[in-house]
Amino acid sequence: MSRVGIRPTIASPTLAVFVVLALTAIRSGFAFVHEAPAALSFSFSNVARAAGLDGMIVYGGADANKYLLETTGTGVAAIDYDHDGWLDLFFVNGSTLEGFPAGTAPTNHLYRNRRDGTFEDVTAKAGLAASGWGQGACVGDYDNDGYDDLFVSYFGHNRLYHNRADGTFEDVTRSAGLTNAGTRWGTGCAFLDYDRDGRLDLFVANYIDLDLATAPTPESGLCRYKGIKVACGPPGLTGGRNALYHNRGNGAFE
After folding, report:
1. Which of 62, 74, 226, 229 is deepest in the core (most CB within 10 A)?
2. Is the residue at 132 inside a domain?
3. Number of domains present in the structure of the chain
């Protein structure tokens, strides 16, 4: 769900001077010899629970997946939402086709960094306890007020949250002109200033046009993997159209 870009490396003046000195030394009959460092030894350990990151993440059925949607995980974003210099964490949550009883649907999670290696769940306090089939998230200060805002993409309808600079967010999707007709599968997003006007624009990647009423299920036998009936897609399904939104500079996009 991420995209990797490659940018050119620009040599510094210090590096240029070093190269000149090295070439001069070689021509003089000697060369600099630098011993390669020994291989670094390191490992990672899972400290999620110890850090307080114990929220439940849901996407798809517990026992079987009928549609491609149920096989895709959800995203996470690092955001210093309270501007204290420490990165906090926002986790996107999904859902199930069966749904949940009223008031029990899983929500997204915002964890505030306590600066001691642990986090606290401030989702409800921050106004981000929204449910739905979330997919991706991106962070950017679209209104240039110095506080990072948050965009969350969904299978369904996306949401833009404006950072109020007081530890809370406001859903401004409609007033920002970012509502969409029908159901779209927004798998990812990115803020970027594509026209270099000093304001962050928004790009949303839409995967495929998935209609659960007509999409084939494993029981149809149309899609198999090594002889096993599996959820179909994306081959054979209509691709979604990505969307680029221009920032008008007045809190709205077009």
Report:
1. 74
2. yes
3. 1
- Residue 36 within any structural domain of the chain: no
User: Residues of 24-47 as b/e, b for ≥16 C-beta within 10 angstroms?
Assistant: eeeeeeeeeeeeeeeeeeeeeeee
* CA–CA dist 192, 180 (Å, integer): 20
Angle, vertex CA 131, rays to CA 128 and CA 134, nearest 5: 95
Cα→Cα distances 50→47, 86, 118, 228, Å: 5, 18, 7, 39
40-49, 200-209, 216-225: the lowest-pLDDT one: 216-225
pTM of the model: 0.82
pLDDT in tens, 42-74: 899 999 999 999 999 999 887 888 999 998 999
The answer to whether residue 25 is domain-embedded is no
Domain range for 165 is 58-245
Residues paired with residue 188 on neighbouring β-strands, in sequence order? 205
Question: Quick one: 4 exposed, middle or buried, by C-beta within 10 A (0-12, 13-18, 19+)?
Answer: exposed
The closest alpha carbon to 236, from 211, 254, 253, 219, belongs to: 211
Backbone region of residue 115 per phi and psi (left: phi > 0; alpha: psi in -120 to 50; beta: other values): left
